[in-house]
Amino acid sequence: MSDLFDRVTEDQDPITKLASKIPGFDGYIERQTRRNADKLLRESMASSYEELVKRISDIQKDLVSSGEISVLDDLETAVTKLQTFVDKIRNASYGYSGFFDAVKINEDELAQIYHYDLSMLEMQEGISSAIDNIEQSIGSDGLPAAIRHLIGLSRDLVSAYEKRDEVVTAMG
Description:
By secondary structure, the protein is mainly α.
């Protein structure tokens, strides 16, 4: 997570770097940088999860072509959960408490938020693997179980986002 923060920090213009040397102003700059990092992270995460949704849509077409229509509703449950997640992170407000806000984020709260962000990024691999498993299971008895596994992972992803959102909301 610090790599993303460092990347955004490196992209600062010289005036911003100079202003960050003014006592008290560096906290404002750091919060702005965190907001920018948060925005970049969530846009990237939304795009990558959107690609997974597209993969599932392609699988749905394959299932229709192969006559396995009975599992489409279950697979649509996973698509709906993933798309809900994408919509939530794309449309949520960015960043953490501002310079003049009465409530300031502390390092423990920030670490908690980063923990959820990291877990949502790591879940992407598992979901991608679950989609691979569904593709390999088309035409086999293991297809319903593979879809149930994807639904469970999708549910866990939405739950992780909701827990992250609760932490952010509790700070405001």
